[in-house]
Each structure stands twice: as structure tokens, then as C-alpha cells.
């Protein structure tokens, strides 16, 4: 139970701290979604790439869990291999999301990479 609290807390804190930084970076690089009056009805530009803040938080939590998996007695974690697999999958999903934010890839292409 303590492992889940520690890793969840670390993930939350990293994501919470990274969000304004990534937002600032997105605006400075013009990585924003602008209103167009048709589909995009927001009043002002919105920063894109916010999923990467969540990704950084996830990686912090998983990294902490992987670093200390031998300290914590978690029955479903017997090795680092599942954590590595989840990490690779999460990075791929984050990259697909960022590419979609930038280039608006087709739905079936995005689904292919997500699967």
C-alpha cells in the first residue's frame, strides 16, 4: 500500500509541476490550438502537448516503482520487465498524441499506432 501511495504521489507532483512548464513551452513554440469559429469554439488559443506532462508524471511513478521494486512487496510485480513494457507503450502513445496534435493525423493511422 505504501508503494502505491509513494508512486502515485510522485506521479502527481511531477505532473503538477510539469504542466505549467509545458504550457509555457507550448506557447513559446506556437504549439497551440487556435479557435476557428467552426469546430474549435474556445475563446483563446489553447496549449497542446499537455499529455506529455501526464507522461512525465507516469514515468516518475513507474521509475520510482522500478527503482525500488525489490523494497516493496507487491505481489503482481516480480520483475522490472512489465514496467519496462508499460513504459515503452506509454512513450509510444505520448509520441502518437504529440504527432496528432501537431499534424492532425488520420483517425485510422492514429488507431494503428495506438494498438
Question: If you had to describe this structure to a student in words, what would you say it looks like?
Answer:
With about 120 residues, the protein is mainly α. Helix content is about 65%, strand content about 5%. It contains 4 helices and 2 strands. The protein has helices at about 1-30, 50-65, 80-105, 105-115; strands at about 30-35, 45. The chain has a two-stranded antiparallel ribbon with strand order 1-2. Helix 1 runs antiparallel to helix 2. The longest helix has 27 residues, at about 1-30. The mean pLDDT is about 85.
Low-confidence stretches: none
Q: Which band does the percent of strand residues land in?
A: under 5%
Helix share, percent: 55-70%
Global mean pLDDT: 86
Biggest sheet statistics:
2 strands, antiparallel
Task: Compute the separation of the termini in Å.
Answer: 31 Å
Task: Output the radius of gyration.
Answer: 17 Å
Q: H/E order of the elements?
A: HEEHHH
- Could you tell me the number of beta strands? 2
Number of helices: 4
Spatial strand order of the main sheet: 1-2
At a glance:
This protein has helices at residues 2-28, 51-67, 81-103, 107-114, and strands spanning 32-33, 46-47.
Key descriptive features of the protein:
elongated; 4 helices; two-stranded antiparallel sheet; mainly alpha; 115 residues; 2 strands
Topology:
Blueprint: H1 2-28, E1 32-33, E2 46-47, H2 51-67, H3 81-103, H4 107-114
Antiparallel strand pairs: 1-2
Helix pairs in contact: 1-2, 2-3
Amino acid at each position: 500500500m505504501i508503494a502505491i501511495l509513494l508512486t502515485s504521489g510522485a506521479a502527481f507532483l511531477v505532473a503538477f509541476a510539469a504542466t505549467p512548464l509545458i504550457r509555457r513551452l507550448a506557447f513559446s513554440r506556437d504549439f497551440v490550438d487556435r479557435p476557428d469559429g467552426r469546430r474549435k469554439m474556445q475563446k483563446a488559443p489553447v496549449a497542446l502537448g499537455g499529455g506529455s506532462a501526464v507522461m512525465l508524471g507516469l514515468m516518475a511513478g513507474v521509475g520510482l516503482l522500478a527503482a525500488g521494486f525489490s523494497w516493496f512487496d507487491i505481489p503482481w510485480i516480480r520483475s522490472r520487465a512489465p514496467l519496462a513494457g508499460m513504459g515503452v507503450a506509454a512513450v509510444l502513445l505520448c509520441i502518437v498524441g504529440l504527432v496528432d496534435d501537431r499534424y492532425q493525423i488520420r483517425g485510422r493511422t492514429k488507431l494503428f499506432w495506438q494498438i
